[in-house]
Amino acid sequence: MLDQRLATRVENFVSRLKRESVCMHGFILDVRGEVKATAYYPPFEEGKAHRMYSVSKSMTALAIGLLLDEGKISLDDCIADYFRDFLPEKPDARLMRLKIRDMLRMATCYRATVYRETDDDWTKPFFTAASTHEPGTVFHYDTGCSQVLAALVARLTGQQVMDYLNERVFTPLGADDGKHWLRDPAGTCQGGTGLCMSLRDLHKVTRLVMDGGRGILPEWFCREMTKKHIDNCLCTNEEERYGYGWQVWMTRAGWAMYGLGGQLAVVCPEKDVCLCTIADTRLDPIGVQRIYNAFFDEIYPYCGMEDMSPVRLSPEMQPLGNNPACALDASPVYHFAAPNPLGLARVELRGNTLIWENARGRHPLQFGLGENRVSEFPGWPGRTMLSSGGWVSADENGNLLRVRCQIIDDAPCGVDMLLRFTGTCLTVQARKSSDPATNAYDGVATGYVEEDADES
């Protein structure tokens, strides 16, 4: 009979993430090439594209690997030589010494990304900004270098990196779930952040790299990409201090593709194990580290020692808790003086709905009490959110309601709010993960019932 003890470890992993309120969307556990556990947290489904954020960098690197293998570029080529039309009359001398090798390992001449999302072209600023240090010397995470590498693919192949990888990697691999790649205003794929692909296809590509490319990718590049090429011990987060490869991170037991909010492909070569995840941890500063720790504590030590039959799980996304004894059924209309940090005009509670009025108009903000509810983010047609609410307390200071909204489209992001209701005023405290839809939800503001508004 097959040993089933590893199944208990997976259950412990799921339970721990739930207990720590990690907003998981799905995961796949692969041990020695066999998928042991697949999980999707409703409403997320198998085969659906999910924003990968900086996993895009790793995929862009695969395209660069193919160009290197074909001899179309060299690791020691200077990147500026391919973009002379973007250079100013007197280009920065340190930029002119920056090599493709250093682009891959995040050792550019900039201490931060130089383009802004409002720029007309996200590639050009890389060649016009003032450098901060000698390239090739230290690690600084720079999404701009991944953007430039994607633009390089387009220049040399005549194809956007999405189309090039579809032709050369995804289709031959059978990674054929629907996918797309967001573009910058100039029409270039966002090489460092824009890929939207399924968890299933992320796993397929990860296993391909683990297996040395299987003739689809160059074996030497798969090997070199996943080796440490530079130290990064000054990084803030624990799991980001083990070094950096070529557009992948080193970890305590191997390497990882890592995207904002918990998009992960964690690879442990010694045991031939990988864990791929999709999530939205952006409201939790240590959310991604929680995923790493849960995996390395609850599952990894037992891989290779214990086994299990493959399972498919459908865990619940953890909603906020609710104390009905503290609930209000409705509230008066609260009026907010302008300007205020949240841009609010009026707010009213009606059961499980906040009538929310701000610069985008008057809209319902719906939430489930103690459960998740799918609805539309207020004032942003077409942007679907998963929201839950819960009454926290009721005392002489009023009734306290918490509401959490998580947008679940191509740009996962969220809002977490506390609302203190009294007979005369409502104070709203909000924080957000950055996105055009959520940027107004950051700060504190107090509104008053109409007869008290003049006295406020």
Description:
This protein has nine helices and 21 strands. With 456 residues, the chain is an alpha+beta fold. It folds into two domains: 5-313, 3-Layer(aba) Sandwich (Beta-lactamase); 324-453, Lipocalin. β17 (384-395) and β18 form a beta hairpin.
Write the layout of secondary structure elements.
Elements: H1 5-19, E1 24-31, E2 34-40, E3 50-51, H2 55-69, H3 100-104, H4 143-157, H5 161-173, E4 180-181, E5 195-197, H6 199-210, H7 219-225, E6 249-251, E7 254-259, E8 263-268, E9 273-279, H8 287-298, E10 311-313, E11 334-335, E12 346-350, E13 353-358, E14 361-366, E15 368-369, E16 373-376, E17 384-395, E18 398-407, E19 413-421, E20 425-432, E21 443-449, H9 450-453
Helices and strands: which structural class? alpha+beta
Overall form: globular
Rg calculated over all Cα atoms: 24 Å
Q: How many helix segments?
A: 9
CATH superfamily of the largest domain: DD-peptidase/beta-lactamase superfamily
Order of helices and strands: HEEEHHHHEEHHEEEEHEEEEEEEEEEEEH
Here the CATH topology of the largest domain equals Beta-lactamase
- Helical amount among residues, as a percent range? 10-25%
The total number of structural domains is 2
The CATH class of the largest domain, by name, is Alpha Beta
Second CATH tier, the architecture of the largest domain = 3-Layer(aba) Sandwich
* Counted beta strands: 21
Query: Which percent band covers the strand fraction?
Result: 25-35%
